[in-house]
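Write out the 3D structure for:
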Amino acid sequence: MAAAARLCRLRGKLSGRPGALALCSGARHASGGRREAEAKPSRAWQAGGIRNVVLSNPQRRNALSLAMLKSLREDLLRDIDSPDLRVIIISGEGPVFSSGHDLKELSPETGKKYHLEVFETCAELMTLLSKLPVPVIAKVNGLATAAGCQLVASCDIAVASEESRFATPGVNVGLFCSTPAVPVGRSLPRKVALEMLFTGEPITAREALLHGLVSRVVPAEKLEDETLRIAHKICESSRSVLALGKAAFYKQMAQDVDTAYRTTSGVMVDNLALEDGREGIEAFLCKRKPVWSQSGRKGSP
């Protein structure tokens, strides 16, 4: 299996994408030609500092099954500290970004222990997104419901096509969207979030933009270009500075204003001590483009 994984990495391609590094987790077939395991429900490749992570189980509406949650976590965390990784884009294959949890896994037959594992794994994945040292962009083209809407709300940036819709419809099947309510309620005004949660009715992409669930809405044919434009812009900045700033942003958001200013004042002092912090200011004063080290090292005194 290790040899097969090395071979997969050496090939360095996925779906014929030139220059892309396929991110593979191991062999998929046993020696007898039978499948050794279920097909991985997500796929990932990386090129030019941008990692694409795709929910690739459209037959199941990209449901966030336990297998999908674990697969996404694996794709996100692989080589996460590599300076070559600058930004992550999460998207869904097919007309549905994600329909949320797989309700077949939440039946009485699977049991309370399994149910708890599903929700704990989901919570771990959602909170992981804000802790990653690189920005995470949701690229949404289609329907994002329940935990799928939760995934969008948990990303740092979200770009959606005009056709996209967002909903938390669990109440309609007797399962209130309590866990999706955590990031949705922190992204949307309270009354808008509660209307979504109480009625289960979807909101349009334009409404999602108006209320802050997504960052940008574009025609479907421009979704890829606009998402890549943002990703490439992020890649122009220092990874170490972005990592410091992202961590500080989420930390101060949970604090009162006075504490937040104390926290961020200290972070700005730390930023100035970084090699890239000093390089950026020197480059600005010298009217030249900065050359980032991406190292996170402190500059010399």
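Confidence is low (pLDDT under 50) at residues 1-18, 25-37.
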